[in-house]
Amino acid sequence: MKYKYDKIVVKSVEQFYKKICNGYIFENIGLAEEKKKDLYNFILMQKDSLTKQICLGDCYYYGYGISKDLTKAIECYTKAANQGDAKAQYNLGLCYYYGQGVSQDYEKAFHWYEKAANQENANAQYMLGYCYYYGRGVSIDYAKAFYWFEKAANQGNANAQYNLGLCYIYGKGVEKDYLKAFALYEKAANQGYAIAQNGLGNFYYSGQGVSQDDEKAFYWFEKAANQGYSYAQNSLGNCYYYGRGVSIDYAKAFYWFEKAANQGNANAQYNLGLCYIYGKGVEKDYLKAFALYEKAANQDHTQAQICLAAYYRCGEEVVAKDYKKAFYLYEKAAYKGSVIAQYNLGIFYEKGYGVSKDLTKAIEWYTKAANQGNKEAQDAIKRLINSK
Q: Which domains does the chain have, with CATH numbers?
């Protein structure tokens, strides 16, 4: 059967089942909540077929007209999958991949994805590419990942289009090509795929692979942000904060940073902290800024680690002075290449703040910062050498 992946809405269970028989995907068919309760009994009355078997599995999987029961869903999928049905094979792959109603098993997931993919099931082709890309149930093979992403993308699968774009961006299984990546992101974005919309916004924001255009960047960030995608919400906040593609509006910047931060986005937590520090879109509140920097730092956000280190170093009203904690945070950031952290680590070793004084290590860290062009570090090296 040639599957159709369009999202549609029907008014009755009869229409729902007819669409299934015509190749539409169960989860892509919209049906009023009050109608869903009748779907299971309607399907149960149909003649025995693979379609009926899969639909019963889907009813158990989603809880349509019957209590959700993943064990029974898998039983239905397995019967149909063993008879060669691609949709059932794909569904069974999902269950094994995510450990739904069965122990997680990437190798079994790969097995069923491969069977379905070879029958041109676009969703399975995408997931097979994903398995090859990340080494789930099979050794990493970027060439094969690219191959399967491309097959699914050519069938209009938005996830595959986005991931194929990633292959072109990072040169995984193919030569780097930002223009092709942009074109693929655009296809996925136009299907409403939030991650691709955000990626398209990044293309326009940076001017990589396309002419730089802040207004178009804002347009795509906003589309993705309104779907709840935290990275886009943070990017939209940046647009409002710095006036990129829209007039500066600190209140709106704060709003979007906060929405993203509440989802655990470390960049947004850091940016929201800045709003509290400088009183942008909100009253100044150093205690709230500290709490946000701490959340972001715990997610290994470099700038947040540096800001948190400054709090502990200064020890003002928000937190007690603690050189050891400041040293720990500067060290974490320094090893990731932060020139500010490297310079401050040099100071801590020179002065013995939170660590035993060690002029050799001080010069080592000053040198790292100096090699990145830090003038203060260059001067510190000269001073220490001349003082010997």
A: 1-105 (1.25.40.10), 221-299 (1.25.40.10)
